[in-house]
């Protein structure tokens, strides 16, 4: 069973699925979702709260959706999966590997995550840091961001998540986006809004490809930074700058449980 709701004035649709998702139903679901994407829904939330079974054909459907949404800059959020279905998703590795796919505990929290860049909220404060593009400065740069965030009453778990994600983004900026480490600098733009923290990290070089490293090889000795960023933050975006360099945007939604 499939029911699709479209949010008014937004490029977001919620597809409510129910029952078993296997080869007998995937073709009809795929056809309906294809029409939905073609109709302008660039962001798709799959409500899995009433799905009792998912097999390899269901995973194939998710891969197909990722290929459809990624060129549009869209997101696919898998919301509310029960323990068994979540285990299948975990075994597939899709949430950590596919560029457009994320997981959320419910449709409500998934919608909130998508609204982070769509709904204006009051900017409380903003800081900009310019740090050396050098491995030796990495620890100090992470600590400077964490020190600034002590102005927000975050839980220790949320603060640690942000610290790790920022550290991975900075490491990538230094390794892949700074061709002249002796002179290159990395810019960190930290903005705290009423409902979210936005951290933008911009390097000076050609940047790096979003899908490299462990995204395609789980046994790679490096390349898991993007996987960590996506797992620890609510949203991660990459943008090539017109004057060179890459900007990585890390967004953490401020929920009640994030506050100490």
Give the overall shape. elongated
Helix content: 25-40%
One letter per element, helices H and strands E, the order comes to EEHEHEHHEHEHHEEHEE
Report the top-level CATH class of the largest domain. Alpha Beta
Biggest sheet character: 5 strands, mixed
What is the correct CATH architecture of the largest domain? Answer: 2-Layer Sandwich
Overall number of structural domains: 2
Global structural class: alpha/beta
Residue fraction in strands? 25-35%
> Over the alpha carbons, how many angstroms does the gyration radius reach?
19 Å
CATH homologous superfamily title of the largest domain? Histidine kinase-like ATPase, C-terminal domain
Question: How does this structure look, described?
Answer:
With 260 residues, the chain is α/β, with parallel strands linked by helices. The chain has helices at 26-38, 56-69, 83-92, 94-97, 107-115, 138-149, 156-176, 225-232; strands spanning 2-6, 12-21, 43-54, 75-79, 101-104, 123-132, 185-193, 196-202, 235-240, 246-253. The strands form 2 sheets. Strands 1-2-3-4-5 form a 5-stranded mixed sheet. Strands 6-7-8-10-9 form a 5-stranded antiparallel sheet. Strand 1 and strand 2 (12-21) form a beta hairpin. Helix 1 (26-38) runs parallel beside helix 2 (56-69), helix 6 packs antiparallel against helix 7 (156-176) and helix 7 packs antiparallel against helix 8 (225-232). Residues 211-222 have low confidence and may be disordered.
